[in-house]
Design brief:
Blueprint: H1 6-18, E1 28-29, E2 40-51, E3 59-70, H2 76-89, E4 100-114, E5 119-131
Parallel strand pairs: 1-2
Antiparallel strand pairs: 2-3, 3-5, 4-5
Length: 132
């Protein structure tokens, strides 16, 4: 198994999302901001990886979660951002600093209220296939 492409995949995802016009002014982070009482941000989150190596070389499947977290009233703003993220990642090629992204696919989304209804969170799960 190779986990060697994980950092390069995260960098490419960050670069793609940070460049989206729809996310202008929305921080893209990989750790929860400290002390943020209000606002909206995109969180590069959890990741499960399994080996997909074969006789031709190393490879892996990354199941990763990208979350939109917002204190804006209602789900509309969070959903609009989630749509932009899904559209930006679906089928568009990305160049990695190491390895190669074979493809990335949307798997599912879960929208929930948190913190007694004060926070909206949408978790988007994607499957990325990489070769090292």
């Amino acid at each position: 198994m190779s986990y060697g492409v994980a950092a390069a995949l995260q960098e490419a995802l960050f670069d793609r999302l940070a460049a989206l016009p729809e996310l202008a002014g929305v921080p893209v982070v990989d750790a929860l901001p400290k002390g943020q009482a209000a606002g909206t941000f995109v969180l590069l989150g959890a990741e499960d990886v399994r080996d997909l190596s074969d006789a031709t070389g190393g490879g892996a499947e990354h199941r990763l979660v990208i979350s939109v977290i917002s204190t804006a009233a209602g789900f509309l703003k969070a959903k609009a951002l989630a749509v932009a993220i899904s559209d930006a990642l679906g089928g568009a090629p990305m160049v990695l600093a190491r390895g190669r992204l074979v493809g990335i696919d949307f798997l599912r989304a879960a929208a929930r209220r948190r913190d007694e209804g004060k926070v909206r969170r949408i978790d988007l799960t994607f499957r990325a296939r990489v070769e090292d």
